[in-house]
Amino acid sequence: MLTGALLILAPLFLGFALALENRKVMTLIHYSVEGLVYFILVLLGLGLGQMEGLAAQLGGMMAQVLMLLASLFVANMVGLWLFHRWRPLSLEPAEDTVNHGYRRLFLAGLKPLLAVVVGLLAGYYLLPVFPMAEQLATWSLMVLLFLIGVQLRNAGLSLRKLLMNRQGLGIALALAASSLVAGAALVPWLGLPWHDALAVASGFGWYSLSGVVIGEALGPAWGGVAFLNDVLREIVALAIIPMLIARRPAMAIGYGGATAMDFTLPVIRSSGGLACVPVAIASGFLLSFLSPVMMAVFLSLG
């Protein structure tokens, strides 16, 4: 399992080492990343749909998802609140967030779920068993991680400056640490070894990564649990950011996890102001690196 974990990590760091300046190539990479994400999610749904005894396991999966989501929410909010108390962030006046752009982002958060549902229904009702689906998803994920590494390197962000952003670094570490606390507390209820439970808790909102990595290591049912937990984190984050960010910016930014540097960033910017942007980018960037590393390390212990 250690070899598989290293194979997952290698493309990310390889892509991060590649410097590109061609805008057309970067535009192509952007659209390729978007397409690969949905392709991987459809494959994840396909694997779930063709899983033996799916109907019998759905109830248990949903119970595990809700337990994981609730526990992580509470632990993350406590950890981020403590960080906010220690190092509060001053904000400028926010813009009006109740607009069509915000509603569009919230609805867009449902698209990953739709992609998985399409794959699930196709696998359950239409398509014959496709034994190569898991391997195809793994290779697609490796290509995706390589491209994301290229994007991170060429986003005009200095790794040194991001690591020196104490607010962003503190928020990322608070979220990661509190997630591990929640994962450890859930070990008796999830029925997983401690290291696997910590791996499941280490997705930080990166659903296309966690669903495939956990699914490959622990089976499609747990892959589905990891995916649903992380995609629901993103949807909940979109709902709570406007409510929390004025008084508790660390909690609002941090709960978005890895998505704070991309998908939830527009809502963070519009509701929290410019002061939140570098903090959100730093936090999301660091969590985007921590998530695959931590999942790989914990899964390698099995």
Topology:
Blueprint: H1 2-16, H2 23-49, H3 54-86, H4 100-108, H5 111-126, H6 133-153, H7 159-164, H8 166-185, H9 187-190, H10 194-200, H11 207-218, H12 220-244, H13 249-255, H14 265-272, H15 276-300
Kindly describe this structure.
The chain has 302 residues and is an all-alpha fold. It has one domain. The protein has 15 helices and no strands. It has helices spanning 2-16, 23-49, 54-86, 100-108, 111-126, 133-153, 159-164, 166-185, 187-190, 194-200, 207-218, 220-244, 249-255, 265-272, 276-300. Helix 2 crosses helix 5, helix 2 packs across helix 12 (220-244) and helix 3 (54-86) crosses helix 8 (166-185). The longest helix has 33 residues, at 54-86. The chain starts with a helix and ends with a helix. The model is unreliable at 96-100 (pLDDT under 50). One of its GO terms (cellular component) is plasma membrane. It holds the Pfam family Lys_export. Keywords: Membrane, Transmembrane, Transmembrane helix. InterPro entries: LysO. GO terms for molecular function: L-lysine efflux transmembrane transporter activity.
